[in-house]
Amino acid sequence: MQNDIEKILVSEEEIQKRTQELGAELSAEYKDKNPLVVGILKGAIPFLSDLTKAMDVKLEMDFMDVSSYGSAMVSSGEVKILKDLDTNVEGRNILIVEDIIDSGRTLSYIIDMFKYRKAKSIKIVTLLDKPEGRVVPLEADYVGFLVPNEFVVGYGLDFIEHYRNLPYIGVLKPEIYE
Ligand SMILES: O=P(O)(O)OC[C@H]1O[C@H](OP(=O)(O)OP(=O)(O)O)[C@H](O)[C@@H]1O
Ligand SMILES: Nc1nc2[nH]cnc2c(=O)[nH]1
Prior knowledge:
It catalyses: IMP + diphosphate = hypoxanthine + 5-phospho-alpha-D-ribose 1-diphosphate; GMP + diphosphate = guanine + 5-phospho-alpha-D-ribose 1-diphosphate. It is found in: Cytoplasm. Residues 14-159 form the Phosphoribosyltransferase domain. It comes from Desemzia incerta. The chain is α/β, with parallel strands linked by helices. The chain is 22% helix and 33% strand. It contains three helices and eight strands. A six-stranded mixed β-sheet has the order 4-3-2-5-6-7, with helices on both faces. Strands 1-8 form a two-stranded antiparallel ribbon. The two termini are 16 Å apart. The model has no long low-confidence stretch (mean pLDDT 95).
């Protein structure tokens, strides 16, 4: 699998160090707020797992799965809920955990939904932000790393469901797409 990687953009050490920093910041922000940490399946799982272990606060976790219709690498803009939360978000402090914000469509849809459901506060932490990909305006409250406008894989991010288990963020060799 590692043979398929052309270059590493964010190393395992960089991810782990930044995750500890973000965990400390979020611990201060959410002290005594019992946040509901919402992971967006499936890409957010490795980051959410490491990040919440770096947060020394009482919190709850829940998960949503949404799909944006489209090919493996280009989304169409339509978002559909595949798995909803089990938890009522009304009056809750919500921390959404994402692996990447690209067009911004996925999170824009989810945030509107949480506002409609009367969440008390909504914040976003994303491991990666790809600002050049933005189609709808959206800013995360906490960002791990900025990435260029390239298709990235690893640490949760897939290409046709593979490479999520890489411990770093990388770019695939061109022949993998052939
Ligand atoms: O800002 P956007 O352009 O909406 O892209 C970001 C979304 O795309 C990826 O999810 P994907 O739909 O590929 O699902 P997955 O996490 O299960 O791979 C990623 O995990 C984000 O949720
Ligand atoms: N794997 C992967 N999924 C994405 N979803 C939105 N942007 C990306 C990306 O660069 N890589």
